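Chapter summary example.
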Amino acid sequence: MKHDRAIIMGFRQPTSLPLENTVPITWTSDLDTGIAVIDQQHMRIVDYINQMEHAQQKQDRGLVGRVLDELVDYTLSHFAFEESLQEEAGYPYLKPHRKVHELFVRRVNEYRERFSRGEEIAEEIHTLLSAWLINHIKRDDADYVGAVRPRMVALVSDQRKEGWLARSLGRFFR
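The structure predicted for these 174 residues follows.
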């Protein structure tokens, strides 16, 4: 059964898709939020998702585990950074956005538990991550960016060592 990019990127429950039919995520301009530091973080998450696909194709369980751990660690840092940015910018829907992040983390942790029990989860999690990230950027992140962009741009453009951006990057990405 052939699956096209729309199905892979669509927000559906992961199914057992043959991995050779998945398509690596390619960053396109429609994923840009207009906030460079957030876009760079999203691009890094895309890299991890594509590494997951590569690890699965190599059938390297150890690599799948390492990529999964790094992906989760980086994504948690990204979520904390993004929520801090929203809070600093006065985003009125921070709590629901944070809840979306929490639910996603819970779901990914379920996959991590299954993986630690010996289950093969790379195909499923690749599909989940691809769909979730694209939808999250285009919907949830687009909503907050439109609401708080002027304040956010000022915050992230402050390049001083003691500025918000430097402090926050140091706090969340060590």
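To summarize the output: The chain is about 70% helix and 0% strand.
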